[in-house]
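FORM 7B: Structural annotation worksheet

SECTION A. Query
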Amino acid sequence: MSELSAYEAGERTLFMGNEAIVRGALEAGVAVAAGYPGTPSSEIIENLARVAEAMDIYVEWSVNEKVALEVASSGSFAGLRSLAVMKQPGLNVASDYLLHLSGSGTRAGMVLVSADDPGALSSVNEGESRHYAKLMEVPLLEPGDFQEAREMTAWAFELSESIRNVVLLRTVTRLSHASGTVTVGEIPKREKKAFFKHDGFIIDPMEGVVMSPPVEWKHGQQQEKLKQAKALFEESPFNRYEGPDSPELLIITSSVCHLYCKEAVELLAQQERVGILKLGTTWPLPDNLVKRYMKEATSIFVVEEVLPFLEEEVKILAAECVGEIGEKFFFGKRNGYLPSTGEMNPDRVVAALSRILEVPYEGLEAAYAVRATEISFMGSPNREATFCPGCPHRASFWAINTALSMDNQNGFVCGDIGCYSMAVLSAGFSTLKTLHAMGSGTGVASGFGKLSRFGMEQPVVSVCGDSTFFHSAIPPLVNAIHNGSNMTLVVLDNSGTAMTGFQPHPGLASDAMGEAAASIDIAGVCRALGATVREGRAFEVLKTRETLFGLMEEEGVKVLVLKEACALSPDKKRTRAFEMSVEKERCLGEGCGCNRYCTRVFACPGLVWDKEEGRAKIDEVVCTGCGVCADICPVGAISRKEAIHG
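SECTION B. Predicted structure
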């Protein structure tokens, strides 16, 4: 049994933030959990899957976040506590259904966890999920540390059941992926019996039809639920104040930012002048609580990640009750004391706080800071993001790039999110020319492929991964086929959701809990839709290039499925197809005429330039033996032979 479920009530242990959320869900008696993998949220579903059998929980990796929310809601409708998990762009995908779900309401407790990524540490955006709480009119909770992550998750289910609506729990990367001490509670033994009551009066919320109509009446009910939540928030233990009774400056903050605020106040030794109001229930605001502390302060400083969501709500409240609390000076993001981009950190808070309080502070000696800047720009090597040794994507993009170059019609590739997003960089030969949301590459290519009537004759190619294909590339592919677009889709099938940890998807024969599952054949789906389909191997780069030549000459929608497992996948660990070597006599180095093509352009980390020898060589520790470099060497100086496995 996983340690997450093994600890007894009262024990203290070290948990990652995501693990603390899982423990809280277990203590709440969660029965159904669904999500789509995305850093920093993935560990929540993964850890629940590990205890699914022992704890009698149904856990799945859904095809996308909208479906995950729908699956989780079915549990709530049938009387089971449920959890939906995703990262911040996934909430955009789920928002269509969330709008209806928040209107229809839920039954058993249902929590939606959205993991935001301030600073875009593992994303291509730092989108905010907090605004969805206000837009959808559902309560928003933000744990501020690891203990709260456990306790607040468990309480979120209680809150959901008390107001009969979904509750949004927002975490951030620095909470989800850091670790801290947590005292655990008790995991209850409760019967999990599912039954969907639907024969009652049509608008009975617990026994009637689950729907958002009649809209105006249901909308009114939804707003009443928010008032109930607001009343509970006034007394919530997740809202805490520390500091003097009448502070000169009141910091209002939430999430992990309150830790940065505490550190900043201590560094400046301003505990006698500054108070900190840490809010865990950030929407709707607990008005009376916030007013009580604003009234005692002269100025207000709002610290949050990323956009001024909390700041704007606090200012609205202050404007409404100015006669009660008096005029206040505000500092935050809107007047430039804090940036509205990137992660918050103690340095940013200290800089703003010292400016507000007119307290001098210098964290680093000026000479040290100057030297550090010099080293970062001049003394350290450029380490651009790159594909792993033996990554099939490097091979695929080499074939795509060379095919388009040799075709000489100025063709281009539309892409989206995944490891293969790095193909916008030199790692993928700068092949991608558009980069947006999951599945958007195919949607954009579908549009480009209809522009021949306006004189556009460039070949149009899109790429997506196998997990992305099921997540959101099928609808734009259907659109392209139905509308007669002229484009080629290359599916980079590396047998798993590789970017986030090899979670299974519908193309694989197992599910989130490790049980056998029906695998959906990508090529078969595309053929059934009416596309011209070819299949190949990513490492067969010359054959792939020729196949692409042929497909680009055909009209209509074409699909090339390139299969090759990720070099880091569990199936490929400690295995290699070939033993690679460089024939010194044939590698002419700088005198070859190829301008060190293998190490300068193809640039697999398993190929290195030997300065002393003046030629390429194989790094036997790093090389995975994919064999592709033997095909790309213009003089055939790199050879391969079948690896012998004992």
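SECTION C. Observations
The chain has 23 helices and 24 strands. The longest strand covers residues 110-116.

SECTION D. Sign-off
Analyst initials: ____
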